[in-house]
Amino acid sequence: MKKPRTRIQEKNSATILEAALDVFSAQGFRGATLDQIAEVAGLSKPNLLYYFPSKDAVHAALLSRLLTTWLDPLRAMNPAGEPVAEILAYVRRKLELSRDYPRESRLFANEILQGAPRMKAVIETDLKALVDEKAAVLTAWMDQGRIARLSPHHLIFSIWSLTQHYADFDVQVRAVLGEGHDPFAEAGEFLETLFARLLAP
């Protein structure tokens, strides 16, 4: 039976993952090294290796944690709720994730751009199953005439792209808007208007 981790071990593990998030989101998987992660974490490399045996292991732990966070808003879409309100709530939650977890968004984007070598199995099983389940909910709402007839999968894809853009291209968004703008507040208002009109039956 595996011994539970001590408080110090939990703290060090969390410190390593936080440092790894900084390094991976900035450098990508290929550009990141264990030496860089250890330096940012303020630990020695041997100490880091006590908790995670390889760069792959650190990256896998981050991606596993990230996928749970990323999919929770979609899981929260309630089939018994009011369709437009449920979809707009999903848009808001996804935009809030981009605002609050920009490094995680870039980490996920980097993994996908590389062909998802460490996440493909999960994407093809767990992620696909959840998206298919919610696409069926959207289709049922369309069949009931409660929202406009659209491709349910592409509706979900469009929500992903239009919300995660604000995390993955944050520097570009802020440069174009200039000072005095809150990209996320403005985006929230715009996206709610956009999707409310798009979804109107």
TrEMBL record:
Report the domain of life of the source organism.
Bacteria
Extent of the signal sequence: none
* Claim: DNA-binding is one of the keywords in the record: yes
Which PROSITE patterns does the annotation name?
HTH_TETR_2
Keyword Signal found: no
InterPro entries linked = Homeodomain-like_sf, HTH-type_TetR-like_transc_reg, HTH_TetR, Tet_transcr_reg_TetR-rel_C_sf, Tscrpt_reg_YcdC_C
GO terms, molecular function: DNA-binding transcription factor activity; transcription cis-regulatory region binding
One GO biological process this protein is involved in is: negative regulation of DNA-templated transcription
Q: Which SUPFAM superfamilies match?
A: Homeodomain-like, Tetracyclin repressor-like, C-terminal domain
Q: Which UniProt keywords apply?
A: DNA-binding
Q: Which residues bind DNA?
A: 33-52
Where in the numbering of this chain does the HTH tetR-type domain appear? 10-70
Q: Which PANTHER family match?
A: HTH-TYPE TRANSCRIPTIONAL REGULATOR RUTR (PTHR30055)
Q: What is this protein called?
A: TetR family transcriptional regulator
